[in-house]
Amino acid sequence: MDFELNKLVRPNIRALEPYSCARDEFKGMEAHVFLDANENPYNNPVNRYPDPLQEKLKGRLAPLKQVRPSQIFLGNGSDEAIDLVYRIFCTPGRDNVVAIAPTYGMYKVCADINDVEYRAVPLSPDWQLDAQALLRVADAQTKVIWICSPNNPTGNEFPREVIHEVLTCFGGIVVIDEAYSDFSSQVPFRTMLDRYPNLIVLNTFSKAWASAAIRLGMAFASEDIIALFNKVKYPYNVNLLTQEKACALIDDLATVDSWLAQIRRERDHVLPALSELPIVREVFPSDANFVLVRVTDANRIYRYLVEKGIVVRNRHRVQLCNDCLRITIGTRQENNELLGALRFYK
Ligand code: PMP
Description:
Layout: H1 5-8, H2 11-14, H3 22-25, H4 55-65, E1 72-75, H5 78-89, E2 96-101, H6 106-113, E3 117-122, H7 131-137, E4 142-148, H8 160-169, E5 173-177, E6 199-204, E7 217-220, H9 223-232, H10 240-250, H11 253-275, E8 280-283, E9 290-295, H12 298-307, E10 313-314, E11 324-328, H13 332-343
Parallel strand pairs: 2-3, 2-4, 4-5, 5-6
Antiparallel strand pairs: 1-7, 6-7, 8-9, 9-11, 10-11
Helix pairs in contact: 4-10, 5-6, 7-8, 11-13
Bound molecules: 4'-deoxy-4'-aminopyridoxal-5'-phosphate (PMP).
């Protein structure tokens, strides 16, 4: 399938003259008097605007993620990258996107905010993805296909061949949200950027990195796509404290790895224990740090757990997820508290 990035970009974005901030115009390290950005000179110590392109952090992330720094966009959570995909590629009231159902809710919310039609293709009852079904609902106005793998809320990841089929056969942008890929054992798609010019991969510091509060999301794509993200984003979209905290986390990868190993071990403990409970009808396989469980009465069990001070996510009202609860894997103590409470449920 031929891919022409320029044809996919909204005409107003193609023509956009981006804002040029003080820190874009002067980049040298030699200066010592900064009277260019109307900052307060008193160092408290966050008086200066942060690096708008987060170059130090991207330099640290690139080898870790096996991409070039120029293939990285950093944003205020991956939710910022999701919104930017619409603002760059989808003309409101005219273009559409295709996604699976059920999946992460922000793809649809951002479509609605941007007045872009959202076409949802249901997964099979065992949560499998049919590439041809996605491609069939796409038309000339389809700019983006969203695939979340491992998928939220179902927890499974899709076979690589199916995703390759979508990437090969679709002439628009394919976003693969790999927010949970650190919990799976498959090769992540961000290593395939040079093979697929239409690929955008999303990652986040909110899950494996245990840093949801710093709001740091990543998008990996070709240099040309990243240049578009940089053109449209707010000038200083990632604050200094977040950039510094992320660098400190990268200095201590051993801790991140130990969290991941522990969460995987806990997942192996929680899933079989849940299957043994009489109130559990089905535990769906998980490649993520959560598990989707079909129970006898999701609303009632949800309320029972809340009374015990335990909050899970009730997905009963989500398409195809009737009577399903989504349960995050916690610490051994938290998981045992949950399992104990469920054993006593009557
Ligand atoms: N993608 C998926 C699939 C998610 O489940 C979530 C958060 N629940 C996000 C993205 C959002 O991540 P962030 O915190 O980086 O905005």
